[in-house]
Amino acid sequence: MADPAVRAAVGRVNLAGYRSRTLCSGALVAPDLVLTAAHCVTAPDGTPLPLDDIHFVAGWDRGAHQGHGRAAAVTLHPDWAGTERGEVVSDLALIRLKAPLPQAPLATAPPAPEPVPRALAGYAATRPHSASARHPCDETARVGRYLVLACPAEGGLSGGPVLEHGPDRWRVVGVIAGGSSDMATPQTHAAGLGRAILRLIPSVGGRD
Questions:
Q1: Residues 6 or more apart in contact with residue 78 via CB below 8 angstroms
Q2: Measuring CA to CA, which residue among 65, 83, 38, 54 is closest to residue 176?
Q3: Could you read off the pLDDT of 112-153 as tens digits, one per residue?
Q4: CB atoms within 10 A of CB 146
Q5: Are residues 37 and 126 in the same domain?
Q6: The dihedral sign for the CA sequence 142, 25, 170, 29
Q7: Which DSSP symbol is given to 49?
Q8: What CA–CA distance (Å, rounded) separates 174 from 35?
Q9: d(CA 199, CA 195)
Q10: Confidence (pLDDT) at 199
Q11: What is the pLDDT of residues 150-182, one digit of tens each?
Q12: Peptidase S1 domain: which residues (predicted)?
């Protein structure tokens, strides 16, 4: 995807703990807020990871970036119960950064009610030094806010945005939760944005 606003706002969510290093993706949705998957920033039982282990790097591209910051707080979807018991539709989290980033955040909205073509963006584990994009990704199934899209989901893309093009710009309508990278039957499972997480964005950002 060549859109510079998307490339500047989508970034790597780097997770580094004791003897471990994990990669997810995320998108800046307010100057100091990153939307990602809850399973990226929690243990399997749903317990949040230490804040010092969470680092967002926006627009990472072969050593250059558009800004970065460490986590000051993590807010989970109220229904998230961890990968052991959690559901895709609640696999959503907001990372509040210690300081705002300079670029424009991406707009957010619920998914369109009709199955329109969508795009995915993020950092695949097989290509971690530059953003990957999948477009178009047709919707093949939907149960409530649980979206299934006909695009492959590689490791590392978890937490990346599902995008729809509005009248004048791309907007985030969901978050990649997982899927299959088998090119014979590619699938991405995603959590569409709903009222619970959309209400949290203005209330969580910008707090001390």
A1: 90, 196
A2: 38
A3: 998 888 999 999 988 999 999 999 999 999 999 999 999 988
A4: 17
A5: no
A6: positive
A7: P
A8: 9
A9: 6
A10: 94
A11: 998 888 999 999 999 988 899 999 999 998 777
A12: 1-208
State residue 206's pLDDT score: 65
Q: What is the dihedral of CA 69, 70, 72, 73, to 10 degrees?
A: 110
Strand partners, 155: none
- Dihedral sign, Cα of residue 44, residue 55, residue 182, residue 177: positive
Looking up residue 38, the CATH number of its domain turns out to be 2.40.10.10
What total of structural domains would you count in the chain?
A: 2
CB 162 within 8 A of CB 149: yes
In this predicted model, what pLDDT tens digit does every residue of 48-103 receive, in sequence order? 999 999 999 999 999 999 999 999 999 999 999 988 776 899 999 999 999 999 99
pTM, two decimal places: 0.94
d(CA 89, CA 149): 14
Same domain, 77 and 113: no
Instruction: For strands 107-108 and 170-180, give the pairing.
Output: parallel
From CA 10, how far away is CA 155, in angstroms rounded? 16
Which residues constitute the domain of residue 81? 4-105+196-204
